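Q: Got a minute? One more chain.
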Amino acid sequence: MKKTVIDGLAHPWSMAFINEGEVLLCEKEGDLLRINLSSKQKTIVKGFPEDLFRPITIEAYAYPQYTYPTSLDGQTIWGNGGILDVVLDPDFSVNNKIYLSYVSQKQDNFALKVVSARLIRDSLQNITTLLNPGPYVPGLWHFGGGLTIHKNRLYITTGERLFFEIAHQGLPIAQDVTDARGAIYRLNLDGSIPEDNPDLGQQAAEGMVAFGIRAAQGICVRPGSDEIWFSEHGTRQGDEINLLKAGANYGWPNITSGGYRTPDYAPDSLPNPIYTGPQYYWLQTVAPTGLTFYTGHEFPSWYGNLIVPGLSRGSLWRLVLDGQTIISVEELFTNDHVRSRKAVQSPEGRLYILTDEDNGKIVRIHNGQN
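A: Always. Here it is, folded:
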């Protein structure tokens, strides 16, 4: 069953629990909110960096020989933007430190930025830039921005920033380790580079640990393991669930379980590449977003399952694993679809999703008994 806990949110993207009753929530429209789930009080956190971009409807962002359309399949195309993700430091109760990813703007150009800050009551202090994987370019697509922390290392997803793959000629962005886009990064919590990161070459972007990724948004740690899983948006189909492996090339756009937006596209290739395939892919478009492993006790049969919300058709999925193999997949709430951006579990094991709507909501998934 579903229960709306909070509504009136401007396209919420992510949420982190300060405690069982209080959360930090990121909105696409560009506010970081501190929300009391019991009193319903919402407070805007002050002091966010001034380069934050608040999204608008795209009219036309031109690339050489290609232009972003104002509509696709009869639907208006919106750009991404705002605050993408927030996670708390493992020692948050002591240091009040948080990590944020957001869309940074310089004139008419945009890039992902990741910062750390101290949350002092309702304001950000001591803001430090950890990652700003440019270049700043036009277009408001596929920034990535997924964050997770494991063993005092911060993992960050970055998108390749293209809507149409043919907009970039030559070696694809996601196959070029000297280009900071289309990759996953691993940093120390102060932004420095861990000594045990894989060596992707002398010219590789600092902190990069995997590449060949089109548009990964969700990333999470499997509890009780060193496994890090991430979701990836395809173009025409090709939506995937991947297991992070140090140094891996996930193949986009040279291999995909889907197709291209431009059928005559033929990407250049690295010499003698070795590609890593997905753990699972859908045969239909799902647009998977912020995933989480369920370890609560309200749904005993779900324990250890991967919960994956989707934007396309508002789907919500439960994936059952045997080791690292996904052995069954169930779509939940098939009669009650809602476009969803993230699944989050509370400290006490309650499961929530964020709905990506003008009247966005925090929705609790429950068994009807409490």
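A: The helical segments are 92-95.
Q: Perfect, thanks.
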